[in-house]
Specification:
This protein is of the alpha+beta class. Helix content is 23%, strand content 39%. The protein is globular and about 40 Å long. The two termini are 19 Å apart. The structure holds carboxymethyldethia coenzyme *A (CMX). Carboxymethyldethia coenzyme *A binds next to strand 3, helix 2 and strand 5.
Amino acid sequence: MIKVEHIGIAVKTLTDSVPLFEKLLKSQCYKTEMVDSEMVNTAFFKAGDTKIELLESIEDNSAISKFIEKKGEGVHHIAFEVENIEAEMEKLRNEGFLLLNDKPKKGADNKIICFLHPKSTNGVLIELCQSIK
Ligand code: CMX
């Protein structure tokens, strides 16, 4: 697990936050994508060697909606790029990390993903992601 592929930030609305981050990062949002399975709308920005993903909830009971209700807008997860997600999941599971998915699932931006429960990672929600080739 070496490269930080992206940092996910929970926001109330993309309408407000996309222009804010365009101003902040001095770069245009290069992609927006709805991920139905996660009940989110996403917007992506390049930031040096990594990316910023803004996450807006599209359902009241989504993970992002619950997060914002409890903690407010802010950093939601850090995503690490891996070469072989299934092997990495197996390794981390054997090392005692709590995986939130049994199998990789489809995420935004052409990735398969898996989350690690923040309770097993010092309070930080970690995403593993692998590019779909
Ligand atoms: N970062 C750190 N801690 C978090 C967190 C986050 N993003 N989300 C929840 N927590 C904390 C809660 O505050 C709670 O803490 P306390 O026990 O101290 O109160 C703890 O984790 C467990 O919360 P919970 O009530 O058991 O579970 P939730 O229903 O809040 O679910 C989680 C938490 C992480 C299991 C759930 O959000 C999840 O499965 N996340 C993975 C999927 C996801 O986040 N999808 C959205 C992004 C999709 C994308 O990137 O495309």
